[in-house]
Amino acid sequence: MSDWLAQNPDLRRQIQRSVINTSNGPDGPWIAIVHDLPIANPALALSRDDAAGFLIEIASKEIPTDFDIKLWSDLVRSQQSADGIPEQVSSAARLGTTHHSILSERWEQITAPPNRDWRKEQQDQKIQREKERENRFVEHRATYFPE
To answer: Which end of the chain is more exposed for a tag (fewer CB within 10 A), N or C?
Structure first.
């Protein structure tokens, strides 16, 4: 099935669009993008090309709906990694930011530096756990080898 979908990109894109547009749960299109499509068939997972195509469609609308704005944000976030947003997706997203101020605001929110440095926090927690572990070992050894 995956090979067949790869050989039929128009139908593949229509399936993606249908699933995304009918995602009306509390998380909006996010779950459809990152979970439902890849689970249904790995060939349905959104590629950078897919995300860029959908972003361009939204950018070309005269007035994006609330759903379009949410979808635009979820598409950008779905392609974001620790290395940032791929250039292809970033370029497509910037088309939307030049046409619609609300998308420009969303772009600023998405690309803003994080409020918290989770990597540093994680490292600090690891160091603290190691200290606590070493202290427990010292106490434990002291019960077997009293001075």
So the answer is: C
